[in-house]
Amino acid sequence: MKATILHKLILYSLTFMLTSCEKDFLIDEFLGDNKTTVNCLFDKENQFKIFVTQSSHPTQNTSTIAPQDVWIELFENDSLVGVVPYIPANAANSFGSYNTTYIPIEGKKYALKVARPGLPLVTAQDTMPTSPQVINYKVSAYTTTPTQSNVQFSFTLSDQNPNQPDYYRIQTFHSYSLWVKTSPNDSSLKHFYEYIQPSNLSPLADIIDDHGWSYLFSDKDFNGLTKNIITGFQSLDTTKLTALTVHLDIIKVSQNHWNYFQTLEKFNNSNKETDPAPVFSNIANGYGIFMSQNIKRLSVQIK
């Protein structure tokens, strides 16, 4: 008998400026299994932030594990980088993570070994993607209304690896400044960052929608070639702003990253009660996902 175990955790998404986002890791598992769940999204900005929990029944809360009961080793191309220390999330020492400031290098393989008393050694590995190659970019269309602006952001992506498939993610946000009244006689200049839901305006292969806040695609129709890509999104009316910059993150993701979100989409579209689609995991002897990405940020100042 199978059921879907839901593990909620906080991942610092490097594609989001100075903020964190909550991700649901949905893994199709056997009821009653007593295994270690490991989740990590790593890249050059946030490095390695590893969450370790205990698998649990879907009707129960995710089980935390005492930090002294977990030993994590990080490897680069099979050479030991070091032991990853535990960092508590709050004064109560609840739901912390295992963090290292070691910066991954593109093209290199990274592996984890996670040991817990009385349980099999858990292992995982992923290869850091190379940086996406962008030839040029611009805001190709910009119109305004009394309440918002409509932006079309175009760029040319050069796929330089014709011998294997590559996978990408697009995510957008804007940063802006405006004067905010802080008292009847005073105002101060405030700065904000906000995510924007992107809309794909180009013919792309294998598109995966990630809850509306980003989308993934493959290089199936331009492998080894260049591709002009246009993304649309809504920003702000600049009338009351002192500054506005729109940002697009073009992200090359690993094969494991792609496999996870591809199967997650299939799970979301399946009958979760009677026949849930399995969700990809690359955690040997455990559950979860160990995946990577490489981000290139494109920014255009509007005001």
What report would you give on this structure?
The protein has 303 residues and is mainly beta. It folds into two domains: 2-129 and 255-292, no CATH class; 133-252, Immunoglobulin-like. The chain is 5% helix and 55% strand. The chain has one helix and 20 strands. A hairpin with a 5-residue loop joins strand 3 (36-42) and strand 4 (48-54).
Blueprint of the fold:
Elements: E1 2-11, E2 21-30, E3 36-42, E4 48-54, E5 71-76, E6 79-83, E7 86-87, E8 97-100, E9 109-115, E10 122-127, E11 133-144, E12 148-158, E13 167-183, E14 186-196, E15 199-200, E16 205-210, E17 214-218, E18 226-236, E19 243-253, H1 255-269, E20 286-301
Parallel strand pairs: 3-20
Antiparallel strand pairs: 1-2, 3-4, 4-8, 5-6, 5-9, 7-8, 9-10, 11-12, 12-18, 13-14, 13-17, 13-19, 15-18, 16-17, 19-20
Order of helices and strands: EEEEEEEEEEEEEEEEEEEHE
Overall mean pLDDT score?
86
Kindly state the percentage of residues in helix.
under 10%
Q: Could you tell me the number of beta strands?
A: 20
User: Main β-sheet: number of strands, strand sense, barrel status?
Assistant: 10 strands, mixed
Low-confidence stretches: 1-32
Given the helix and strand composition, which structural class is it?
mainly beta
Return the domain count. Answer: 2
What's the shape?
A: globular
Quickly count the helices: 1
Beta fraction: over 45%
What is the rounded Rg?
21 Å
The rounded distance between the terminal residues' Cα atoms is 58 Å
